[in-house]
Structure formats: C-alpha cells, structure tokens
Amino acid sequence: MFPRLHIITDSLDVVRGAVGHGPVAIQVRVKTGDRDAYQLTVAALALCRSAGALCLVDDRVGVALAAGADGVHVGAEDLPVAAARRVLGPAAILGATCRDPDSARAAVADGATYLGVGPVFATSTKIGLPPPIGPGGLAAVVAAVPGIPVIAIAGITAARIAAGLPGYGVAAISAIAADPAAATIEFLRVLAFRDGVAAGGAA
C-alpha cells in the first residue's frame, strides 16, 4: 500500500527514528549540492530498504536515478512533471506539488502518481509560500482527481489529522524532527483512526 505518511528530511537521524514503525515514505530534501543529496539518499535508501519504507528524492531526478531511489517529488518550480516522467520511465513513483484542481488534473495527465497539496496551513518551515488553501481547498483537489493519492502538506499536526483532514495522507517536516520515532508512531495512529472512522469501522 502506498504510504499515508511522508516524512521530508535532510537528516539521517530522522530517517533512523522514523522507519520501522509502519508504512512511511521518506522524502530526501537537500538544498545544497547534488553530491550531498546523492550521499544522503544512498544512506537513507539503505535504512529504508531494511525497514520496508519508500525512499523518494525531492526535486533532483538525476540524484534519484543515480542512487536507485523509488521515485521523485517535483515542486512547482522544478522539472515539469511530463519531463520528469520521460526521464524516470513508467515504473518510478512521481509526486507533484499542486494547490488547486486545475494544476492537480494537469499533473496527473502528465504522469504524476501522487500529489503533494498545499500549503494547507501556515508554516515557518519554508519561506515564500503562497497563502494556505485550508482544508476546503484540499478537499477540492481531492474531489478533482479521484483515485489519486493526495498528500496534504504544511502545518500538519496529529490534532489536525484527527479532526478529519481530507485527503489520502500527509507530509510532515518539523512535526517529526524533534522526536522522529514518537511522532511517526502518533501520526500513523491518528491516520489509522481517521481512516477507520471514515470507513465506518472500529477505531
């Protein structure tokens, strides 16, 4: 099953703490050079493989291919989705950042296998973001691309998930970083509870 929890990080300590507790995807995000990104991806990939977790690379298609990662996530200012799909081939996981139904439908048509949608809430993790779209904006994207995993990002907390945040899953950065193991366990717990309630099952 495609993981409902995506953890974005540039720290091997976070990867070590986060994997092994349930299905997660680790997204390696490095803002320095390709060499640093490659070295971290190779190390993260080894940890992910041993724990059965997915390993994706943020932005850098070449690094993902060189390291043998499971896929790539491209942002709005990165390589276009269609171009990334051509380079990656048909089998790799390809995520795309979107914030409205039109861009979501276009990304899926161009080959995205999942969407990272946001910012849903205000966050200080990344500067220069557009205004938050809120749960309502997130729900509009979910409705526009039925059957495509929509991963909410920015300002995500366990409490907000438990309140019924729409979408397939969530991505977290700062909420995981302080205590990766405990935070990952809690996020997975509330995601399972939310999905059980939504399906009418037992919590």
UniProtKB/TrEMBL annotation:
Gene3D superfamilies: Aldolase class I. It is an enzyme of class 2 (transferase). 2-[(2R,5Z)-2-carboxy-4-methylthiazol-5(2H)-ylidene]ethyl phosphate binds at residues 123-125, 155, 173-174. Binds 1 Mg(2+) ion per subunit. It catalyses: 4-methyl-5-(2-phosphooxyethyl)-thiazole + 4-amino-2-methyl-5-(diphosphooxymethyl)pyrimidine + H(+) = thiamine phosphate + diphosphate; 2-[(2R,5Z)-2-carboxy-4-methylthiazol-5(2H)-ylidene]ethyl phosphate + 4-amino-2-methyl-5-(diphosphooxymethyl)pyrimidine + 2 H(+) = thiamine phosphate + CO2 + diphosphate; 2-(2-carboxy-4-methylthiazol-5-yl)ethyl phosphate + 4-amino-2-methyl-5-(diphosphooxymethyl)pyrimidine + 2 H(+) = thiamine phosphate + CO2 + diphosphate. Residues 9-176 form the Thiamine phosphate synthase/TenI domain. This is Thiamine-phosphate synthase. It comes from Paractinoplanes toevensis.
